[in-house]
Amino acid sequence: MHTLPPPLGLMGAVGADLRGRPEEDSACEEGAGRPDQELTWSWGHRPRSALDGAKAMAPPPPPPLAASTPLLHGEFGSFPARSSRFALTLTPQALHIQRLRPKPEARPRGGLVPLAEVSGCCTLRSRSPSDAAAAYFCIYTYPQGRRGGRRRAARTFRVDGAATYEENRAEAQRWATALMCLLRGLPLPGDGEITPELLPKPPRLLLLVNPLGGRGLAWQWCKTHVLPMISEAGLSFNLIQTERQNHARELVQGLRLSEWDGIVTVSGDGLLFEVLNGFLDRPDWEEAVKTPVGILPCGSGNALAGAVNQHGGFEPALGVDLLLNCSLLLCRGGSRPLDLMSVTLASGSRCLSFLSVAWGFVSDVDIQSERFRALGSARFTLGTVLGLATLHTYRGRLSYLPATVEPTSPTPARGLPRAKSELTLAPAPAPAPPVAHSPLHRSVSDLPLPLPQPALTSPGSPEPLPILSLNGGGPELAGDWGGAGDAPLSPDPPLPSPPSSPKAALLSPITEGVPETLASSGLPPPTPGSPGAVSTRGPHDHLLPPLGTPLPPGWVTLEGDFVLMLAISPSHLGADLVAAPHARFDDGLVHLCWVRGGISRAALLRLFLAMERGSHFSLGCPQLGYAAARAFRLEPLTPRGVLTVDGEQVEYGPLQAQMHPGLGTLLTGPPGCPRREP
Fold it and tell me: Where in the numbering of this chain does the DAGKc domain appear (predicted)?
């Protein structure tokens, strides 16, 4: 055992046994959890599992001072450079790596790997007969470069402290399991027995991808960045490409939601708007709307992703960097209640809003910049410039019910996702009873997809699909291998998946045509609609009288000329625009911002520039107003104008909305992530 010189200094309380006991299950194989455990990420619509009860009885997490307490320590070789040796120390917050040979490092460079930058870990073995006794584990990280951008890095370590492969494999599994438990927020046992059984089965996600999102790069970004990362994390998923407007809305109307632990949109804010309002179209909307939803930003409008990024403690980001940050948070799991606004339009139809209702300058820029969609997020910059050149004012009446309670700190986040065990790398070849799934079209099987580069395969891997290969998603070691006589590493031999595993049966990879509606689901067939299609179902708006009737006492009414009116729920209006700095996903408030007429173009531009830092309220602009409310009514008195709900244009006329606290569930990332306060 090697002790670590400063600055690590973490070796006082670490045991010296590096072997551990051999295990039959591997550390990244799906279904390695206890067979009686129910698949859950504690997202609110799944039954509690035996592990949930164990977590409830487990001791509280260590205080902040214990963040540097060593949990595991060992000395390992490296791959592909066999001559190097490293000392590894795992703490609750980071992995410390120090080179011992050929030249020890007093101040290791790149030797601190925060777990917030780790997507997953798996174990491997060598294909070379001369290296048959060694086992390997690979850690996937996404560190930030000097210029701030993230780049993928895989670190592979050779476990060779024992004479037999079984013993070395058990130690590799021990490290992989401990890392995955820390990533998922699962407690490690106090007796030091870290076995793959600590990892329950993974959650099952439905990914909806708008291939034309943003500048038309959504599908390419999904293949290049999203799918490799969630495969490294060991998540189980299906993927569907949407083909038209409201396609996602139609799909979720006919889904058996009990089959899914979350629905994640890979696009801009518009696709999530379709999903939530598809829930509203279902007869079981009250249960459907509780389905956890997530967003991976690949569109031009990524406001909710900007708020998720801030909630996760990351610095403001755009483009691929924002996508990688949100993907890391999704891989680690965790959710929060999500406030939703019920919006009633002039015709009496209703829709759910997770983001904003806009009138005036903001909605004008949003809709008029549609013709510049090929520019991506830059369309809003160009639209703002054009909007300032033709600045309009609108006469209207804004009424709101003030909030009686000031915004408070968010409630503790919900539970974390579970991890799969080691053999995500290869699907189980053993036959299993078929599992009935909702029919999907243009769907990729729920097996984790591999990296787009050359990846490890096993003899039992299925044939690859066009574009996407379903070989289980191994690490890119074959491409990195440069040895003259040794073969690359490969995944351990797969073990049969239990019958309850989502991998036990493959879905038909590609199904063309319109999906059938399951008669047994009791749901009506999906009906197409326009981009602004709305529903008549939804929660009861007990704070709102019917449109056109007088408001009850206690409401505040403002009438006059407005440049803009914005009712927003989360903090962000765009990925880089913090409109309501103190807003939270579950504060139960709608944050009203308005700008009255009489403001100059220069002053309005200064407001939006300051909004990038969330400091626009500190400018002292006399035309800028703010109020926290529980409900509001907007009555445009100008005959022509544009109204948007979550960036989607709706019918012009009077509307009103009420905030429904915690009606939905949002996948945000793990609790306890450091959060940057605005």
Answer: 200-347
